[in-house]
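Researcher: Go.
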Amino acid sequence: MTDVVPGDYDTTNNSKTATIEITNPRVLVPVWYDLIAGDYTYAALTLQTDHQQFDATDPAYLSWVVDSDNYFHIKQHNLYYQADLNSSVSVTFPVTIQSSMSSDGQQFFTPSFIINEPTYSYSYPGFSTTCGETYEANRWYRACNSHNEWDGYSFDYSTVSTTVHGGTVTYDGWNIGTTRYPDIGTVYVYESNYGPYSYNQDDPTAPMPENLGNNISVRATMTDATGLHFDVEGAVQLYEFPTGTGTYDFPCTSYEYSYDWGRYSGSSCYHTDWTNGGKTGFIYDYTYQ
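Model: Structure:
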């Protein structure tokens, strides 16, 4: 401040200097996101019915018939959560993605993962996309840049996704069989079983809870090579969905061929009954970051 003294009422000749720093502030962009979580059980029982037969035409051989019922049982307890982030700006590789979940107040983190570069691309008239995608220990990561031209509008956008799976798989089975030799009247009946065997689908370094509560919070973050950073979090309420049941049959297969000493034939059929039940929930929202 110059030319200012006490009692100076002439303000026309006063002056002051200052420095103004001009920066390039980051403009906030919209981020649309959906957060999903679920806890459900799938069980299936498959029956394989086999029939095999040999009809001897040479007295040196015995005819035989084998019938067997083979049961395969599997039970899957699946836990998962997913986050999808969409924005109106493109991301620059490498892209770092991380997610976490809390269930009834207990926090569960997953390791961050870096997608260094795109791994595939595809296009069709009016649309093209380039994505980087990877998988590690039942965790999926994906980052895509897309360009859309439709009805005279042209725009770019990005999508970043992460999905985490956990839970257990248990399987067992048993067999009931009969072998008959009609020429001599001998019959053998046998039974066998295996299991149950179980394995865990969790990443051992970042295990999921044994079960999900009803109050879930999902968080996902993304940082690209330019420092663009998205961080979203939301509460996901889980609701029971009706138990589903179903059945399906595979087409039966058969064979038949002959030699000088006899004729071989057989057939095999599959039938499966399944049930599926549990709880799931999702939210969809947007923010500016």
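Model: The longest strand covers residues 153-181.
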